């Protein structure tokens, strides 16, 4: 009986550790997107931003060999492209869904063209250096959480720190209050002396930085190479996680963990070689996300009141 | 005295709109020209190559029509759903599922073409209608976000088709694809010496029907009112939820027809990766046409032609065909951004 229990808890720990690792990219993207949406902007262009971040980190590490440079390059790429997106959303006041969607096609075009230009002719996909797992001594001794938390990459620990930081900034600083006011009641925020466009620019740029980091995570902590299909909907899943996490960073972390656990489960079932076709297993994370945002669990009522509503000063 | 003055209200005259759009298209083309130069190609020659093959050679024009047909159908689906206030983005999924349903019917039955084709259209339309209808139900009944849900359904549909072509529908051989469809199920070719097929005729008829339905029929009126103002529509006695589901049915069905046309007209079999992003390019075509069903016809031919030209350019000059994604999306983004130009006027007095 004891042996059996040990096996079960070992499986549980491995499963949750893999789930935590796989939740990293969507969690990073969802954290920044929470800021964008709290300021009133739905950034569907997150999918393309992640792709461009992934490419930037890949190329940087391919040239320099330094993973932290790769992360930085991805963040900067995300910020630069989201400056354009923020201009379209906030200054031009174009439809947010339309701009984001078309931007994703643009990003795919840019990423594919640049990748083929730089490396396309070389034979086969190229591997780059990756973040190494860290073994934190006291962390692995923790009961229950130890085996799950220990042995992850520094990028994941950074992501978890960012959850706390995001929670603090959004709900316990005057900046966070101003940002939320811009998304909740822009005219009132304006009357109170808050610049709504400025808050929304900042929100979208924070989203760009973390979406870029999410791309770097995919390349530098999960796959180790770049391909055009590397994101495959994880940006959209991050949008779902923001909804399921009720526009709240730490709840988004829990939602991301649920997604990661599903993904880890389907991957281990694929490796287990059961009867279920791998393609159908692979659809599990998408199906779970659809159910999570289908409205079965509520959600519309708590979204920022001015989400997707462009603001023009009277 | 300032040279550029902000208008009190955005200019809405046709001249202002047209000129700002021209500036936008020129800006997008200049940016892409810079990319061509980056590849060491002469931008003028590159553009000439991009438009010569699809529009100046008969064979190329045939291919242009082949590419335009599915784009047109998906753009029409976009128009029906978006103008009804249903932000559906799941056309990639409808496309592959429509292609799969059509392939299944073609491989399992042996009717003559004129029995088979209406049946295939019916089955394909029903497949897409149900696929998109489920999303509409989630929105109408549960208040779910149809934009995100429909984006997610694309991935599920693509995985389902991957499963079909690598499992139950796979033909013997090294590649995961179905057997070649019987010749009797192929769409007739319509231009001698080219690959242009009757799918383009179906797409044009569909464009006329959608245009008429939205313009002259009571149902079309109700759909558009539901989209413009659900509250007003409800007050006027229109069942908004039912209209939403109906719009989703039509959108999904049209998207599925795009897959049918691609399978019966061009590929003649089902394989993984058959869509190649057409589900999103189709939406962009609809945006370029400003959601006008008739304007979809020229804009689909233009964007279909660009794809053909890009492939030719890749073969001849080694410039990656993915550069068309950049040009195609940038044109629409710049047109959207050009609205900002109309907020200002030049003050020469």
Description of the molecule:
With about 325 residues, chain A is mainly alpha-helical. Chain A has 14 helices and no strands. In chain A, helix 1 (about 1-40) packs antiparallel against helix 10 (about 195-225) and helix 11 (about 235-245) packs across helix 12. Chain A is globular, with a radius of gyration of 20 Å. The N and C termini of chain A lie far apart (about 70 Å). The N and C termini of chain B lie close together (about 10 Å). In chain B, helix 3 (about 60-85) packs across helix 11 (about 280-290). In chain B, about 70% of the residues lie in helices and about 0% in strands. The interface between A and B is large, with 47 and 49 residues.
Percentage of residues in DSSP E strands of chain A: under 5%
* Low-confidence regions of chain B: none
Largest sheet of chain A: none
Low-confidence stretches of chain A: none
What gross morphology of chain A would you assign? globular
Strand order of the largest sheet of chain B: 1-2
User: What gyration radius of chain B follows from the Cα positions, in whole Å?
Assistant: 22 Å
Radius of gyration of chain A: 20 Å
Strand content of chain B: under 5%
The greatest interface here is: A-B, 47 and 49 residues
Number of helices of chain B: 13
The average pLDDT value of chain A, as a whole number, equals 90
**Backbone shape of chain B:** globular
Helix fraction of chain B, binned, reads: over 70%
Multimer state? heterodimer
Q: Termini of chain A, distance in Å?
A: 72 Å
Helix content of chain A: over 70%
Main β-sheet description of chain B: 2 strands, antiparallel
Query: How many β-strand runs of chain A?
Result: 0
Series of secondary-structure elements of chain B, N-terminal to C-terminal: EHHHHHHHHHHHHHE
- List the secondary-structure elements of chain A in sequence, H or E: HHHHHHHHHHHHHH
């Amino acid at each position: 009986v004891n042996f059996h229990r040990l096996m079960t808890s070992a499986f549980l720990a491995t499963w949750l550790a893999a789930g935590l690792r796989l939740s990293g990219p969507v969690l990073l993207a969802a954290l920044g997107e929470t800021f964008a949406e709290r300021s009133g902007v739905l950034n569907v262009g997150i999918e393309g931003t992640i792709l461009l971040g992934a490419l930037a980190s890949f190329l940087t590490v391919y040239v320099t060999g330094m993973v932290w440079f790769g992360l930085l390059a991805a963040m900067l790429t995300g910020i630069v492209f989201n400056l354009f997106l923020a201009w379209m959303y906030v200054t031009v006041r174009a439809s947010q869904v339309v701009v984001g969607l078309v931007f994703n096609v643009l990003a795919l075009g840019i990423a594919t063209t640049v990748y083929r230009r730089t490396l396309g002719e070389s034979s086969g996909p190229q591997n780059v250096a990756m973040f190494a797992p860290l073994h934190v001594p006291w962390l692995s001794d923790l009961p229950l959480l130890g085996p799950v938390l220990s042995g992850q990459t520094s990028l994941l620990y950074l992501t978890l720190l960012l959850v706390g930081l995001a929670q603090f900034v959004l709900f316990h600083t005057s900046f966070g209050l101003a940002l939320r006011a811009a998304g909740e009641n822009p005219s009132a925020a304006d009357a109170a002396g808050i610049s709504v466009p400025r808050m929304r620019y900042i929100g979208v740029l924070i989203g760009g930085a973390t979406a870029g980091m999410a791309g770097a995570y995919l390349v530098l902590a999960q796959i180790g190479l770049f391909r055009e299909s590397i994101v495959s909907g994880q940006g959209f899943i991050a949008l779902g996680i923001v909804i399921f996490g009720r526009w709240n960073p730490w709840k988004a972390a829990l939602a991301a963990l649920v997604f990661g656990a599903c993904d880890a489960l389907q991957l281990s079932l694929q490796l287990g070689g059961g009867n279920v076709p791998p393609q159908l297993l692979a659809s599990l994370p998408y199906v779970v996300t659809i159910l999570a945002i289908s409205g079965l669990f509520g959600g519309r009522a708590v979204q920022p009141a001015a989400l997707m509503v462009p603001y023009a000063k009277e | 005295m300032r040279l550029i003055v902000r208008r009190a209200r955005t200019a809405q005259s046709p001249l202002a709109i047209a000129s700002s759009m021209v500036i936008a298209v020129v800006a997008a083309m200049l940016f892409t020209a810079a990319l061509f130069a980056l590849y060491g190609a002469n931008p003028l020659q590159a553009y000439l190559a991009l438009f010569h093959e699809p529009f100046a050679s008969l064979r190329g024009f045939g291919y242009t029509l082949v590419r335009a047909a599915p784009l047109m159908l998906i753009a029409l689906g976009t128009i029906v759903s978006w103008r009804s206030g249903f932000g559906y983005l799941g056309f990639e999924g409808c496309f592959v599922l429509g292609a799969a349903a059509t392939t299944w019917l073609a491989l399992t039955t042996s009717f003559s073409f004129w029995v088979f084709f209406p049946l295939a259209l019916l089955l394909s339309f029903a497949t897409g209608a149900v696929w998109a209808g489920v999303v509409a139900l989630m929105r109408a009944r549960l208040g779910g976000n149809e934009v995100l849900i429909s984006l997610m359904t694309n991935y599920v549909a693509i995985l389902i088709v991957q499963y079909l072509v690598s499992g139950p529908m796979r033909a013997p051989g090294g590649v995961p694809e179905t057997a070649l469809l019987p010749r009797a199920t192929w769409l007739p070719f319509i231009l001698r010496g080219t690959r242009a097929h009757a799918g383009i005729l179906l797409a044009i008829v569909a464009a006329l029907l959608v245009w008429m339905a939205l313009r002259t029929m009571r149902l079309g009126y109700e759909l558009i009112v539901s989209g413009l103002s659900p509250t007003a529509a409800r007050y006027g006695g229109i069942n908004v939820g039912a209209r939403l589901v109906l719009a989703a049915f039509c959108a999904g069905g049209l998207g599925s027809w795009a897959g049918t046309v691609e399978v019966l007209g061009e590929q003649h079999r089902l394989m993984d990766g058959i869509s190649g992003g057409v589900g999103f390019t189709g939406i962009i075509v609809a945006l370029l046409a400003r959601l006008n069903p008739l304007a979809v016809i020229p804009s689909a031919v233009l964007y279909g032609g660009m794809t053909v030209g890009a492939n030719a350019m890749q073969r001849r000059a080694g410039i990656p065909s993915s550069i068309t994604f950049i040009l195609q999306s940038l044109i629409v983004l710049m047109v959207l951004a050009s609205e900002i130009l109309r907020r200002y006027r030049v003050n020469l007095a």
